[in-house]
Amino acid sequence: MIPAAARRWLGAFTFLACLCAVAPVLVIVIESFTSANYVAFPPPGLSVKWYLETIKRPEFVDSMIVSLAVALGTSAASTALGTLTAIALVRHSFRGRRMLQSLFAMPLSLPGLIFGLALLQFITLRNLPVNGWAILVAHVVITMPFAIRFVSVALLGVSPSLELAARSLGASPWRAFRLVTLPLIRPGIVASLVFAFILSFDEVAASLFVSTPTAMTLPVRIYVYIDQNYDPLITAISSVLVFAAAAALAVIEKTVGMGRLFGLK
Amino acid sequence: MPSPSNGSIRAALLLALALAAQGPAPAAAADHEGEVVLAGYGGTIEQFMRNDIIPAFQKKTGIKVTLVVGTAFTNYAKVVAARNRPNIDIYWSNELTHVAGKQQGLYEKLDPAVVTHLPDVLEVARDPDGIGVGSYILATGIVYNSQALKEAGIAAPTSWNDLWDPRLKGKVSLYSFGVAYSQDLVALMTRLAGGSEKDARPGIDKIKTLRQSGNLAQFASSPAELDNSLVQGQSWMSVNGSARAYMLKEQGAPIDFAYPKEGAGYFTNYFDVVKNAPHPKAAQVFVDYLISPEAQLLIAKGTVAAPVNRKVQVPEALKGQIPSPEQIPSMVRIDRAEMNRQLDQWAAMWEREIEAGR
Amino acid sequence: MRAASPAAAAVAARIGASAPRPGGPAPAPAAAAPLPRPPRMRRPVVLLLLLPATALFAVFFLMPLAVLALNSFYDYSRMAGIIETFTPRHYQAILGDLYYLEILGRTLRLALLSALAALALGYPIALYLTVAPPAQRAWIILAVLSPLLVSVIVRTFGWLIILGPNGLVDAALGTVGLDVPPLLHTETAVVIGLANVLMPFLVLSVATSLQAIDPAVPLAAATLGASPLRVFLSVTLPLSLPGVVSGLLIVFSLASSSFVTPSLLGGANYKVLSTMIYQQALVLQNWPFAAAFAVTLVLIVFLVLFVQTRAIEGGKYKVVFH
Fold first, then answer.
1. How many CB atoms lie within 10 A of CB C262?
2. What is the nearest CA distance from B81 to chain A, expressed in angstroms?
3. Sequence-distant (≥ 6) Cβ neighbours of residue B165 within 8 angstroms
4. Chain C partners of A171 at a C-beta cutoff of 8 Å?
5. Max Cα separation, chain A?
6. Which CATH code for domain A58-161+194-230?
7. Domains contained in chain C, CATH given
8. Of C17, C121, C132, C89, residue with least CA distance to C286
9. In chain A, which end has fewer C-beta atoms inside a 10 angstrom radius, N or C?
10. Distance between CA B33 and CA B281 in Å, rounded?
């Protein structure tokens, strides 16, 4: 319902805004091809040696795999739990609902640094082992507010009377939900999966304290690396992630279609 | 503590077991737990630890090493958080966390019977209470962008006062108080003004003049940020550790380091054995190895700093980049205990007077 | 809630007969018929739905938070460490010292500015996403998400290179002849940095809301004579409010707790609460004080969130949220 002229303006604005959004990433990617041994922008020459160097660092590759595993687990768990919670919060009014909603949003405003420290303290206080599960739990707690929010927003756009109608026609509550509501809130669920994944992959502050020697996520490894060495290696590593994400998005676009995945028609 | 007879019987049994299992013969006392956890640094330090030192140590003693990688402060937070049930045996501390942890009883004394290389360690790198030992020595001095200075026609710095050169308006950067070298600078400037760590007011005032003159315009909250500022030419001069500066120089950046004639600051990182650690004996064995000449040579090369073991043969290429045995005694030894006592006040003064003033 | 139209009932009938039908939401004119409330699900079911998340939350968030709150009332001295006696002096320091209050105010102001900047940049993008050709959509989504793919430290260094003196912006402005002081180490730089990375949350939140709008509704408004602008302001915008509010809250909360970006892009002068927490917790090891800062921040943002659920979600546009 947007007239063509407005559409063009919107398109131009979007283009500029996107350019600003990718600006720092572009700088990093360009820098990753530097031939110099230190970070100087613009690069004095071009080379792929920092990518070759990345391959020679198994600890970074290991961390990428750890981050991937943690992110996948976090994404699934967060979205599942978030969806259940969103249904309860959106579809049902009960005493204390607003309080609970705000409570679930609390992790967003707690700096990751202090959450990580508090969690570490809590875990060691309770004599629980500090292992890979700690990171997963921390990440799920951190990403759950997003899951709840995105699914809630999607749920708000679906009339509950649809499910009601299906129920009145004989479908069981679970069936009605699964076949009517669930497909309609798919955009919210997809958004939740994608964001929980990205956030978990990107999380550094809390992970610093609950990472273990064998389960060290990539952002943490980058952080401790840069504490000692400032060189273009991390730009190459970051660029690898960007390329991987672009490739993944290209695949999704070819198969399902990005827009459709997010529910855009 | 096991009685001597128990100890020797146990040692004999373990030795027999070791021989029977055809494992590597342990060098020192065979009385250890078989594994050890070290909380250390990332980057090139992690590299040479993983690739060189740890394999050599494991081969020599059969002790399995787990390396926890972090920063001085994040590792310290982990040590403190888990102090009732430590899971780290050796913590690679910096000057501040070494003395702070010592003060709060977090560390164990080194056992001279196991850490046999202690007498070879330079006096300055040994802890007066026998708790922990220095790992490598570097200097706190002036780091500068040699190309930028040359283009501006400014001579390379030789004195602390060169930071106040009026031609450097807006071109001096310092770490914010969170990084050790700025903490040291307060102490160094206080001494330069004739005072002592008991009252840092003279040092704070001196650094304030640097800010008020317009020279000091940038603060970096992390080493990478300062590196970036200097290399990109956003600032031309700063106060940093020699290791970091020479590392950049080796990478080809136009960075250089100067030992101020009034005295550079002495700085070392320590190996501290954590109290109630899960593998205390293995920890002592490992510390002993880490200060042995072969390990010290690797550490010195990897960190671009001076070894603490006086028996190390320093390669020629490294000599110009590290404090020499002649320089080390003349470096300023800051009263760390006093600094630790007053750290909160120093931090408050730095934040509210130096960083805030524009 | 919107009333089910005959078309919707037909759809539901087909679904009730077991054929799954994913697609857009059923048409539902925002008509005048009283909105039927669904039967309240039985209490046990609600509790069961909430149980897993709440349990996890209670154990692994609320309990550490309680540990934090407890710590914030402990005393601390450099020599003795944490002293487990009750003292409110940390809170007294925070609320009584103008220096800290200023930092608190700055933190909230930054969060608000970042949220608004993200909205200004993100809403048009979300709007465009609903009408863009599919090929473009993929690129836009990649572009908008790309800052999140790069670690926060690396990305902020990218901004350092762009915004610093001798940086790209400086060089670009220089060629045009403008001599503007470098943007680095100003609040503007921090807002840019935060909006840059937090925008995707807003874009996708709003886009989800926008796409749920039944196209029949703005069409009906247009048919009734409203100009495109009027349609947007009176129909589209209000109906996208849940996504807008959600997005704003996410951005606000995240911006309030951000550390790396304000520290690197704002400079040492630009201290926010997270900076204080880092310094007290890691550098000075004064956990009680750091905990007090953290608890203060969380409580204030919680209040903001709670107030808005009453004000906005319970207010004029209540109907959109239920």
1. 28
2. 5
3. B154, B215
4. 15-16
5. 71
6. 1.10.3720.10
7. 64-80+87-321 (1.10.3720.10)
8. C89
9. C
10. 7
Helix, strand, coil % in chain A, rounded to nearest 5: 75, 0, 25
Residues A122-148: pLDDT tens digits?
888 887 777 778 899 999 999 999 899
CB of A117 within 8 Å of a chain B CB? The answer is yes
Chain C residue numbers with beta carbons less than 8 Å from the beta carbon of A188 are 208
C-beta separation of B304 from B321 below 8 A: yes
Q: Are strands C74-77 and C81-86 parallel, antiparallel or unpaired?
A: antiparallel
Nearest to A238 by CA among A218, A217, A216, A255: A218
For Cα atoms B101, B106, B109, give the angle at the middle one, nearest 5 degrees. 100
Residue C252 to residue C30: CA distance in whole angstroms: 31
* Residue A194 CB coordination number (10 Å): 23
Give the domain B140-266+334-355 fold.
Answer: D-Maltodextrin-Binding Protein; domain 2 (3.40.190)
Digit-coded pLDDT (tens) for C83-135: 999 999 999 999 999 999 999 999 999 999 999 999 999 999 999 988 888 88
Q: Which helix (H) or strand (E) holds B220?
A: strand B216-220
Which residues partner with B92 through β-bridges?
Answer: B271
- CATH no. for B4-137+267-329: 3.40.190.10
Residues contacting residue B291 through CB under 8 Å, at least 6 positions apart: B115, B117, B118, B120, B121, B133, B135, B271, B308, B309
Dump pLDDT digits (tens) for B242-281.
999 999 999 999 999 999 999 999 999 999 999 999 999 9
Q: Measure the CA–CA gap between A173 and B48, rounded to whole angstroms.
A: 61
* A-chain residues near B43 (CB < 8 A): 224-229
C 30-59: CB under 8 A from A? 36, 38-41, 43, 46, 49-50, 52-54, 56-57
Tens digits of residue pLDDT in A15-65: 999 999 999 999 999 999 999 898 888 888 999 999 999 998 888 999 999
Contacts of C298 in chain A (CB under 8 A): 106, 109-110
Closest residue in A to B41 (Cα) is A224
- Yes or no, beta carbons of C267 and B219 under 8 Å apart: yes
CA angle A92-C58-B74, nearest 5°?
A: 135
Give residue limits of the domains in chain B: 4-137+267-329, 140-266+334-355
- Half-sphere exposure (Cβ direction) of C271: Cα atoms closer than 13 Å: 25
Residue A191 with chain C: CB contacts under 8 Å: 204-205, 208
Residues facing residue B266 across a β-bridge:
B139
In angstroms, what separates the C-alpha of B23 from chain A's closest C-alpha?
A: 25
Residue pair B355/B221 in contact by the 8 Å Cβ criterion:
no
Contact A216 B69 (CB under 8 A): yes
Beta bridge partners of B307: B136
Q: C153 vs A199: CB contact, 8 Å cut-off?
A: no
B101 vs B153: CA distance, rounded Å: 46
Q: Give the residues across from B95 on adjacent strands.
A: none
Mean pLDDT of C223-242: 86
Residue of B nearest to C80 (CA): B104
For B228, other C-beta atoms within 10 Å of its C-beta total 23
Question: What is the per-residue pLDDT across C105-118, written as a single tens digit (0 to 9) for each?
Answer: 999 999 999 999 99
The residues pairing with B153 across neighbouring beta strands, listed in sequence order, are none
Q: CB–CB of A107/A145 below 8 Å? A: yes
Chains that touch A (3 or more CB pairs under 8 A): B, C
- Give the other-Cβ count within 10 Å of B154's Cβ: 17
DSSP bridge pairs for B271: B92, B133
Shortest alpha-carbon distance between residue B71 and chain A (Å): 6
Probe site for chain C from A137, A153, A233 (most C CB atoms < 10 A): A153
What local confidence, expressed as pLDDT, does residue B313 receive? 93
